[in-house]
Fold:
Amino acid sequence: MNATEDPERKLAAPVHAPYVKVLDLEQTLSDLTAMVDQLQSERDDLEIALTTAIEHGDAIESQLATANVQLQKEVLERRNVEKQLRLLVATITEKSRDLELVLQTITEHADQIDMEWLKRYIESESAARHDSLTGLANRRMLDEAIASEWARGRRESRPVAMLMCDVDHFKEYNDLHGHRAGDECLRRIADVLGGALHRKGDLAARYGGEEFIVLLPNTDREGARAIAANIQRALAHEAIEHGNSPLGAHITLSIGVSAMVPENGDEGPLFAEVDRLLYRAKQQGRNRIVA
Structure:
């Protein structure tokens, strides 16, 4: 040993080494803890991002499904419009050809044609659109009118109303009074229906047998119901004797009433609804209005 070396200093020098190692270990643990926390935070952020992506994906899928349904609806509406246009063009073309034929005939045979011929032509055109028994519009004229008014109502977003009327216990009337009296009864009912209509465009038609249709453009359900009530009052005033009805001494009507604002080119739902309501009127005892 060197005589000048301090023995206590020599013994004290190695004492600092373990503390350094402990400090290094604590720093490492601290770094690892910080890293774990950072990884945990990144994991949480990733989970949030994934959840948000899934939710957005569901929303996008729902939007795509809605857009697909809307597209299919628009395609259907366009096809219906195209169908109506084709029918309209075909009708116009047919009418144009008929008119050209008439004009050609008149031109070629002007010296042979008199007013009587023209009168017969006009009468034949009228007969093709009117019921021969009652004088009301027939199915052909009704179909033309409903197609026209339905298209107009769709363009202008206005309601089209319809009444479907059925003569109560008409078979029993025919059994008691005979078919000739039955025909006269239908004619008198047709007069009542026609007398209840006062606007241009309103139309009464014989739908078949003892059923009648009243077409009311630009009329809502309450307005149509009021007209139905007027028809029933007018028929009661007419007092057509029945004699074989469980409802009373006179002819009565059951009436279904419906009104719709057209959304597409198909007027079928209006016919279906008014027919359903007429059936309910019969089921509820007849001689009533169901709207």
